[in-house]
Amino acid sequence: MRSNPAAADIQAQPELRSLARSVLNACEWPDKQTALDALQAGLQCDCTIDVDEDGVDVRIPGRPEKPRTVAAQDVPRRGLAGREGRAALLHAIAHIEFNAINLACDAVQRFSGMPQKYYRDWAQVALDEARHFALLQTRLADFGYVYGDFPAHDGLWQMAENTRSDCLSRMALVPRLLEARGLDVTPGMIDKLRSLGDSESVAVLEVILAEEIGHVAIGTYWFNFCCQQAQKDPETAFLALLQTCGRGALRGPFNREARLQSGFTEYELAQISLLGRG
Q1: Percentage of the chain with pLDDT > 90?
Q2: Domain count for the chain
Q3: How far apart are CA 193 and CA 174, in angstroms?
Q4: DSSP labels for 177-209?
């Protein structure tokens, strides 16, 4: 019986959600980087996307043994005047970016039935977060440190766990709540590092800030899509989720300009400003 080369090619073609799952499950950075390279190649070659495939309920993502994770209140506070303090800050941001890779890949592999653009969008976000992580690793090395040298907290993934069964809640509470927090605090970090003459770290954070606006905007777009599908008003749904699930993570002051660029409405900004004072 003759084989069918065309059918074999279709079968051998990588599938985007499976590629994202491979990234999510990889633990050590070299392995994750290899899986990310495959994800990038798949995205560039417009690989197949099985939108109907059931996602996998990954409860613990792939991550290295270090850094040691502790409660947020137990992460040591260090001043930025010394090299160790600046390295600790960069390490904390690197940990956020590492988690963001996993979060984006989980958004790809977990939720079925979304438009193909949804999966491509979040695959690209994962690749962006990986580039940010690599930039931070390089800058950490300039200070004589590597990722894993400082303890870190795991709040980002905890929110992923809380929203694992609902794409609407995931889009609201990860990109639009936790990741949007970076839009608020990063300008202050940049100003402080600039005052210390650390132009190299400033350059890295400026790249991250500019691109994170786009990532939060992607979260806004797909949150609005999910609300439309569920016949919910986006502003009402978002603020209700903040009240029930996310109020503790909402703290001002808020970066009004960046949040408007990423799709927040004037009404939302007015309401979160009130909630952030509470």
Answers
A1: 77
A2: 1
A3: 27
A4: IIIHHHHHHHHHHHHHHHHTT-HHHHHHHHHHH
